[in-house]
Amino acid sequence: MSLSMTTLSIIGVLGLIGIGLYALLAAQHMIKVIIALQILAKGAILAFVAAGQANGHVSLGQSMALTIVVADTIVAVVGLSLAVQARRYIGSMNIRSLSNLKR
Amino acid sequence: MWQIVILVGMLICAVMAVRTQKLLISALWLAGASALVALWMYLLGAPEIAVIELSVGAGLVTVLFVFAINISGEGGAPAKELLPRSVSWGLIVLSIGLLAWMGFSGGLPLPASMDGTIFKSVFWQDRAADVLLQIVIIFAGALGILGLLAEGKSHTTKGED
Amino acid sequence: MDVNTLFLWLLILPFAGAMVTYLVGRVAVINKVKDNPARWLAFFVFLGVDYIFILLAQQFLSSGPIDLTVGTVALQFDGISLVLGGSALLLGTLSSLFSVDYIAGDTGEEKFYAMIIAMMGAVVGLSCANDLFNLWVWFETMAITSYMLVAFYSTQPGALEAGVKYLVQSATGSILVMIGIAFVFLVTGETNLDILQKTTAPASILLAAGALFIIGFGVKAALVPMHTWLPDAHSQAPSGVSALLSGIVIEAGLVAMMKALGALAHVSLSWGVILLLFGAVNMTYGNLMALRQNQVKRLLAFSSLSHVGYMLIGFGVAIQFSILNGAAGGFFHLLTHTMMKGLAFLAAGAMLYALYISKQKHGPLMLEDLNGASRKYPMAALGLSVAVLGLGGLPPLAGFMSKWQIFVAGFETQNTWVILLVVYAALNSVLSLGYYAPMVNRMYRLEPSATVSEGKELGFVIQIPLVILTSAIVAIGLWPSAVSFITTPAAAALLKAFGG
Amino acid sequence: MASTLLLLTIGIPWAGAVIIWLIGDEYQKLLHGIAVAFSVAAGVAALMLIPYATGTPIISVDTGPVFGVFTFAPDGLGVFLAAVATVIGSLAVIFSVDYMKGEDQIARYYAFVLFFIGSMAGLVMTTNLLLVFVFWEITALCSYALISFHNDDPKAVAGGMKALIITQFGGVGLLLGALLIHSYLGSYELNDLLARWNDIPAGVLSVAAFGFLAAAAAKSAQFPFQTWLPDAMEAPTPISALIHAATMVNAGVYLLARFYPAFCNVPGWKTAVVIVGVFSALLAAIMAVVATDLKRVLAYSTVSQLGYMVYAVGTGGIFASQFHLFSHSVFKALLFLGAGAVIHAAGTRDMREMGGLGKKMPVVRNVFILGSLALAGLPIMNGFWSKELVLESGLAGGPMWAYIAMLIGAGITAFYTFRCVYLVFYGEPRKELHVHDAGPFMKTALIPLAALSLVTWLAAGPFSLLLKNTLPYHELEAVSTMFVVEEVLKAPATWIAMVVIALGLIAWWQRDKLTGLGKSLKGLGDIAADSFGFEAINRGVVAGVQSTAESLRATQTGVLNWNVASILIGLIVVMVILVMGA
C-alpha cells in the first residue's frame, strides 16, 4: 500500500463526516442527532491532527483539536439538555414532534 | 496494512452508532469510534490529544449520553425516514464525493519534518487566546445547562403586579 | 493605560463582567431579592465595555489599526471591528436596557444577562480576530452563548423546538467551517489571516475550503437555503435576543465569512460572484416568504434574509470589482440594519410584552394584534413604523441611504449584469413594501384589536431604547455621511483583506 | 434672503407637520389653526421666493462622494411648482377645516398633508438627483398614508397600497437613471447632466431617459401606469385635490420637462413621450365618459389632462406644458374641492344619486361650472389658453396623427365635463338628499380658486420670462401675454379645436338622438369601464406574486432532517459552481 498516513487520515475524516451527515439526514431521535454531531466533531478533530502531522506543526494541530474537543463537548451537553427538556415539555425526543414551527 | 484496519474499524463503529436502533448501544458504538480515533491520533504522533479524546470522547460524553437516555427512555419503534433514503444517499455521495475530489485532485502535501514544538507550550502559551475562550465556552455551557434544566415556574413575580 | 492593555480589556471585560453579573444575580436569587440587581449590573457592564470601545475607536481613527498578539494569535482592531463591534455594543446595551422589564422575574434572569454580555463580547472578539482558527473559536463562543438564549423560555415547546433546530444546524455549519480551516491549515501550516492572504495560491483543496467557509458561516449568516433555523429561532427567542440575533449575530456570521474568505482571496476569482448569486436568491426568497406571514416576529425574521441579500450584494461587488463603495455600502447597511431590525424587534417585543408576556401568556404576536396599537403604545408603534419603513428603503430613513450606497457601487461597476442585479434589488425593495406598509397601516387604525384594548401599559425604561434607535435612524437618514467615518475604514479593511 | 425663503418654503410645512404630530389629536381646533397657519405661511414664502428665481444653486451642502452635494436652486420650473404646491396646498388645507371637522386622528391627517406639501416643494427645487429621488419617494409615502387615511376601510387601504407600489415601481426607473448618470458623470448635479449629457454613452443615456419616462408615467398616472389614480379616490376629497392639483402627479410632468434638454436627442424618446401622452389623454377621456363616480370622472380627467402636458413635452413645448400644468392645478383644485363640497353635503359620490343639487348649493354650482369651463377649454378660462398652446405646439413639433388624436380628446373632454355638471347640478333630483351649501372655510378656498381660473392666463408673459431667464439649457423664448393671446387667436388650430369642443357639447346636447351611436360604442364603454384591461393585468401580477409566495412557504418544512439536507444542497451547489468556474 502506497497510501500515506495523511491520505488515510483524510479518507477517515471524509468518511466520518459523511457518516455523520447521513445520520443527521436520517436520524429521528434527538439523541441520535447529538450522536451524529459527535461523529462530525470526531472528523474535525482528526482533520486538525492529521493536518498538523502532515505539515509538521503537530503540536499546533493538537492544540486546535483540543479546543474543538472542548467546544463540541459543550455543544453536545447543551444539545442533550435541550433534548431532555424537550422530552419533559413536548413529551418526546422525536424529530417528528419537533416540527411544529414551519411555513 | 494494520493502519487500514484501524481506519475501517473506526468507520464501522461510526456506521454502527448510526444504524443501531437501541440508543444505549448506539452510544457505546460511538465510544468505540472515539477510542479508535484516539488510537489513530496516537499513531499520527499526537499522544496528548489522543489521551484527552479517550477520556472526554469515549468517557465523559458516553456517560452523558447514558445519563440522558436514562432520563428520556429508549426511542419508540423505528419509523419511516422523514427524508427519502435515496435523497439522503444522493446528497451524501455528491457532497462527500465532491469534497474528496477537490481535496485529493491537487495532491496532498508531502509529510514535512516536525517543527519540534512542544504541545504544552503551544497550547498554553501560543494559543492562550483559544484557551481563555474555552473557559468562556465552558462557562456558557454550564449556564446553558443550568438555564435549560432549571425547574420551577416561569414569571415568579410578574403575576403580583 | 496603554493601547494594548486597553485592547485586552475590551476582550476580557465582557466575559469577566458576564461572570460577575451571573454571580451577583445568583446570590440575589438565592437570597430572594425582589428586584434582581443583575439587570442593572449588566447594563453598567455594557456601558463600561462601550467606554473602552470608544477609547480604542478614537485611537484607531487617529492612528490606524491596533495590533495585539496573544501568544501567536493575532488580533487587530480595524475598521471591521469598528463597525461590527460598535453595532454589537450599541444594540447589546440597548437590548439589556430593554430586557429589564421584559425579563424581570423570569427564571434564569441572571443567566440571561450573563449570556447576552458574553455573546456580545464574543462578537466584538470575532470582529477583531486576525487568526483563522481563533476566528472560529470566537464564532463558536458566540454560537454556544446564543443557544440558551434562543431556548430561554425553556418550558415553552416552541422555544425548545427552535433551540434544537438552531443548535443542530449551527453546529453542522460550524463543523463544516472547521473542516475548511483544517484544509487550509493542512496546505499552508498557517492560520494567520494576513500571512494566508499573501501566501495562498489556487489549489482545488483550498477551493473546497472556500466552499466550506461560505456554507458553514452561511448557516449563521442565513444564506438561502441554509437559513431554515432563522425564522424559528428569531421568532421564539425573547425579543431582546431576537433583536441581537437578527441585528448582530447573522451579520457576525457574514463578517466571519468575509474574513475567512479573505484568506483565500487569491484562490479563486469567483468568490464575489457567488456572494452576488446568494444575494439575489436571499432577497427574493426573504421577501416572498415574509409576504405571507401573519406573525410579526416571524415576518421580521424572514425580512432579515432579504437584508442579508443586500449586504451580500455590497460585499460581492466590493470583492469582485474592488469597489470601495460596495464594501462601504455593505457595512453601512450592516450598521443600519442593526439599528432598524433591532428597533423593529424591540418595538414588536414591547408590544408583545404589553399584550402577552406581562400576562404570562406565550402566544405569538399576530399582525391582527397590531390593529390600532398606536393610541395605546404611541412610541412602540412609531418605532416599529420607522423601523419597517426604513427596512423597506423609504427615504429619509437610514435604510434608504445604505441601500443607495450599495446601488451606487453596483452601478460603478458599469457591468450590465450587476446593474440588472441592482435594479432587481430595487424592485425587491418595492416588493417588500407590500408587507411593511400594511403593517404600519394596521397600527394606525382607528379600531383597536381586542388584544390591544386589554393590553398593559408600557413602562418608561422599556421605551428608552426605542426612542434612541428611532431618532438614530431618522438622523442617519437625513445625514448619511455622518457614519462614513466608520464605514469607509471598514471598507478599506475589507478590501485590504482581499488584497485590493 | 433667497436661501432663507427657500428653506422656509420646505421647512415651514415640515415644522408644522412635526408640531401637529407632537400636539396629538386632543386639541382639534388648535390643529386646524396651526395647519392653516403653517400652510399659508409656506405659500407666502414660496410666492416671495419668485422674484429671487435663479438657475444656480443657492444652497449647497457637500456630503461626500457617495451622496453628492445637496443642492437647491429656485429656478423658474422649481419655484413655480413650489408656489403651486404650497398655495394650492394651503387652499386645500383651508378647505379641510370644514371638510374634516370632527374626524378622528386629525393630527395624522394634517401632519401628512403638510409633510406632503413640503416634500413636493423640496422635490421641485432640489437640483441633486439623489434628493430628487428622496423627495420623490417621500411624496409617494405621503400619498399612501393619506389615500389610506380611513384605514379601517379596506378599499382605502388597497387604494393606498396600489398608489405606493405602482409609483415605487416607477421610482425604480428614476433610480436606474439617476445611478447610471452618477456612475458616468460622477455627479448627481442636475445641471451637470444638462450640460454634459454628451459625455454619457448613447446607449446608457437612452436607458436613463426611458427609466425617467417610466418614473414620470407612474407618478403622473400615465399610460400604462394609470390604474392607481382612480383607486386613489378613496382618499378624503381635499387629499384628492392635493394629489391631483398641487403635488404628486405634477412631479412626473415636471421630471420630463426638467430633463428634456438632455433626453430630447435620444432616438425615440420624444416619440415615446408623445405616445404615452396621447394614449393617456384618449383612454382616460373615454373612461371618464362612462364613469359614474363623481370623483372618478375628475380623476380620469386628471390623467387625460396630464396626457396633454406629457404630449406637449414630447413635442418640445416645455412652456406650453408647464403653462397647462399651471392652469390645470388651479381648475382641478377648484373642481375637486367643489366636488368635495358636494360629496360632503350629499354623502355619496355616485352621480346617479345626485341631480338638481344646483339650487340647493348655488355657490358650489357656480364655481364648479367655472372649473368645468376651464377643463373643457372654453374661452376665456385659463384652460382655454393653455390647451390651445399645447395643441399648437403639438401641431408644430409632433406627428399629425397625435395632433388629431388630441383634438378628438378635447372634444371628448367637453362631452364628459358637461355630462358631469348636468348629472350633478341639473335635472331632477334622483334621490332625496338633505344637502346644504358649503361651509365658510370651504368657500374661502373655492372662491379664490374660481377667480384664479379666470385670470391666471394673464401671467403667461411673466411666466415665460421667468422660465427663459432661469433655465439656460431649455432654449426657451420669452413671449408676452399679448403675444400669446394673438398667437392663440390667430392660429387656425384654435378654431379647429373650438369646433371640436363645440361638437362635443352638441353631442351631449343631442345625446338622445345619438343613442344608436351610443349603443355601437357600448362595447368600447364596457372595456373602458374595466380600464382597458390594465386592471386585470394589475390583479394578475398581484395574485401571481401572492400565490408564488404562498406556495414557496412549503419550502420551510420545519423538519430538522430537511433543514440539514438544505445545508448540504447549498454546499453541493457552491462546490459545483467553484469547480465549473475554476
Automatic annotation (TrEMBL), chain A:
Topology of the protein relative to the lipid bilayer: Multi-pass membrane protein
Gene Ontology terms: cellular component: membrane
Membrane as UniProt keyword: yes
InterPro entries for this protein: NUOK/Mnh_C1-like
Organism: Leptolinea tardivitalis
Subcellular location, record wording: Membrane
Residue intervals passing through the bilayer: 6-26, 33-52, 64-84
Keyword annotations of the record: Membrane, Transmembrane, Transmembrane helix
Name of the protein in question: NADH-quinone oxidoreductase subunit K
TrEMBL record, chain C:
Name used for this protein in its record: NADH:quinone oxidoreductase/Mrp antiporter transmembrane domain-containing protein
Membrane topology, from the record: Multi-pass membrane protein
Major localisation: membrane
Keyword Manganese: no
GO cellular component: plasma membrane
Keywords: Cell membrane, Membrane, Transmembrane, Transmembrane helix
Record localization: Cell membrane; Membrane
Residues spanning the membrane: 6-28, 40-60, 80-100, 112-129, 135-154, 166-189, 201-223, 243-262, 268-288, 308-332, 338-356, 377-397, 417-437, 458-479
Domain NADH:quinone oxidoreductase/Mrp antiporter transmembrane per the UniProt entry, residue ranges: 129-425
UniProt family annotation: Belongs to the CPA3 antiporters (TC 2.A.63) subunit D family.
Keyword Ion transport: no
